Amino acid sequence: MKKKGIKLTACVSVLAMALSGCGSNVSSRAIDEGSNGAVDANASTYNITAEVNTVYSAQKLGELASFGDGYKFEFDGSENDIKFSSLGKSSVGIKAIKDGQDSKTLVLNVNVVDTTSPVFSGIKDITIKAGESVDLKSGVTVSDNYDQNVEFTVTYDKDDTNTGAPGKHVITYVAKDSSGNVASRKATLTIEGDSSQSDQTTTTTTTAQTEAPKTESSSVSTTAAAPDPNAKSDNVKFYQDRIVIAGDSIAYGFCAYGYVPYEHNIAKGSTAMRNYDDTSLFMFDPTGSDLSMMDAIKAVKPSLLYISMGMNDVNLIDSETYVSRYKEFIQKAKEQVPDAIIVAASITPISSTCGFTDINNIKSCNEGLKNLIGSLNDPNVLFFDAYSVIVGSDGSYSAPNTTGPDGIHLVGSCYQQILEKLAVVLDQSGIKDKITEIESKR
Fold it and tell me: Which of 218, 247, 250, 272 would be a feasible disulfide site paired with 312, CB 3.0-4.6 Å?
């Protein structure tokens, strides 16, 4: 993808549920866990996860419970929406109605979480003359869906040894809320003038360092087979500059950890093959405007599109349905950017202590995806075995120190490994030359 002067927008993240809406605060229909609120003894109970300070209709809550198809859901005695304003456990009762017949009462045990990253405002590229001073935090603010005050840091690229020298300097703004959600935005500081004045240039910033991606060339991978641990590529930076990421919270890690800029990010928490096209749940803003996933792909127009999505599917749909939806996704993406190289990445493994899903569910979906890509016989659509990049010596679960406390999401260094191994796969298929040709014709 050719570099464009696209407006940077705030990173909105990450880990599990990322829904949007508008409406009232949580009402008396919400029953705090452990209270003595009256509940129908014959009611069915379901556990769901909801995002804090996000408004839900009864219909959306019922759909999250996966009670069944064809049902309409209502709150008792009111049609108002509900918003959970506190983290932790809560309960709410709804009615499930089908074909206007007798209703069934459902009690939803709600785990209210915060998985939305802070939002930056006021970040822009800065140009000064050598010898001038500048406050890199001036005019920059951070807002959050839950925390009232979120601090942020500004750092230079770790390889920038003379931050006062004339030329271009990449600066990174990082904010982290109390739930651990991270927002990362980059900007450019341009210093104009004579190098003899560089010692006089003053910038004010913070000194806290964040994990930054390495851009040197490195290692490893093959398409449908497990990656070769000894293979290397000289083209990691070439692909990294062009790759656009579409998918879920695991995919969003490429942006959150700084490996791709936000204008190359079309990923958000809770996105899944079963629901990525539900615009009431998911909108993406890589160009500065809210777009559906497919519209965002069309707007960004990548030459290299990397798809990483499925962790939110493995417990809710079978592998056949997952593969069918994946095939539709690829077909729709090719309609948006017919000349693009598309990489379908397998779902990464969970840790052996994680009870999120049966590891065999992930393996089944991955095997189905691998077979699908092979059956398409399209030289511009590749399968990438991301699972084998992360898997440990047992061949089933993620290697030690590759996932966070939840045993699902990847630590920052994994994204460098993925990029390195992906580069080998792309080299083996002659993708660098293809991308160069694509970009020359645009």
Answer: 272
Q: Is the torsion defined by CA of 136, 137, 139, 141 positive or negative?
A: positive
Copy the structure tokens of residue 152. Answer: 């942020």
Residue 45's CB: how many other CB atoms inside 10 A? Answer: 11
Q: Are 139 and 168 in contact (CB under 8 A)?
A: no
DSSP 357-378: S-HHHHHHHHHHHHHHHHHHT-
Confidence (pTM): 0.55
DSSP string, 173-208: EEEE-TT--EEEEEEEEEEES-GGGGGG-EEE----
Give dist(CA 436, CA 442) in Å, integer: 10
What does the DSSP assignment read for 304-344?
Answer: EEEEE--TTTTTTS-HHHHHHHHHHHHHHHHHH-TT-EEEE
List C-alpha distances in Å: 441 to 296, 339, 340, 438. Answer: 21, 10, 12, 5
- Of 95, 81, 11, 14, nearest to 53 (Cα)? 81
The rounded distance, in Å, linking the Cα atoms of 202 and 233 is 39
Give the 3-state secondary structure of residue 229: coil
Q: What is the average pLDDT score of the chain? A: 82
The confidence band for 278, taking pLDDT boundaries of 50, 70 and 90, is very high
Structure token pair of residue 114: 């915060």
The CA–CA distances, whole Å, from 395 to 221, 282, 319 equal 16, 34, 20
> For 401, phi and psi rounded to 5 degrees?
70, 20
Domains of the chain: residue spans and CATH: 30-113 (2.60.40), 119-204 (2.60.40.10), 236-441 (3.40.50.1110)
Asked if residue 72 has pLDDT above 60, the reply is: yes
Strands 182-192 and 82-83, sheet pairing: unpaired
